[in-house]
Amino acid sequence: MFVMKSDGFVASTDLLPGMTAEDIGWKTAIMSLSDMAAKGVKPEGCSIILGIERERNTDFILKIYKGLIRAANQYDFYIWGGDLNEANDLIVGCTMIGWAKDGKIVTRKGARPGDIIAVTGCFGYTSVAYKVLLEGYKIKEKHYLNEILRHVYRPIARIREGLILKNFASASIDSSDGLALSLNLLSDASNVKIVIDKIPITYIAKKFASEYNMDVLKLVLYEGGEEYEIIYSIPIHMWNKAYNAVREVGGKLYPIGRVEEGKGVYLKKNEVYERIFPRGYQHFK
Predict the structure, then answer these.
(1) CA quadruple 184, 185, 191, 194: dihedral, nearest 10
(2) Could you give the CA distance from residue 240 to residue 236 in angstroms, rounded to a whole number?
(3) pLDDT band for position 254 (cuts 50, 70, 90)
(4) What is the CA radius of gyration of the chain?
(5) Fewer CB in 10 Å around end: N or C, the chain?
């Protein structure tokens, strides 16, 4: 089964302070790759459409393609070609085509009561990065600053994990629209209730939230996005196999909650259930 996914980078909405042209190329590829990973699909190749302002020089264009080529080498896919146009804003579009060898993809619709909700990594890097880059907050330690910038400029796609976990998962979604919104999208698609009782949070986010007197859970739930971790629903009888299989390919799997009958997403804290609202990045809102 062939699977196609299109996504795009638009400078007026996606360009962060300090991003290079090579970062733009890399991140554009990751946007489509992450959705392929969530479906358990191996990427084969892509077509790129580039809309660029008249004043940009050739070196800038080549560096965008350098970032795309780095991603292609890292994740083993081809760049088949594309199109170049003049535009009033910098736009990089990527249409990725992948192959589901066994004809199976993981959708958002299969979560069932009793399933374990799990994620492929920790949250908080982009939440802190947005505070620093867009709101003027400071991080004194240079090594921490470099770490959050690396995650926001050069995120990774969980392709290895996705190709393995498709054999165990009942449903999945990538978290690029933000953790809270992504959990709600999964809940709505599967028509189930999701209860979260713990979230793996980076040390940097905990430290940052403490220093600025912020609620770290709200920080990672509502003020992040573009972290490209995958959220899975895994039947409980498949959990041990899924956990061990993903570790064998060098990945991780963190249980964060469970699926129940009902609707909505809730955070359980000290036996109190707090609604997690569907807030995150949405175009045109």
Answers:
(1) -30
(2) 8
(3) very high
(4) 19
(5) C
Tokens 């994740």 sit at which residue?
75
- The CATH 3.90.650.10 portion of the chain extends over 116-275
Q: Where in the chain is the domain with CATH 3.30.1330.10?
A: 2-99
Residue range 196-207, pLDDT digits in tens: 999 999 999 999
pLDDT per position as a tens digit, 221-232: 999 999 999 999
Beta strands in the chain (DSSP E): 2-10, 42-52, 78-86, 91-99, 116-119, 171-174, 193-196, 230-234, 254-260, 264-269, 272-275
Q: Give the per-residue pLDDT at 103.
A: 85
Q: In the CATH scheme, what architecture does the domain 116-275 have?
A: Alpha-Beta Complex (3.90)
DSSP 8-class letter at 119: E
> What pLDDT digit, counting tens, does each position of 139-180 carry?
999 999 999 999 999 999 999 999 999 999 999 999 999 999
By residue count, the chain amounts to: 285
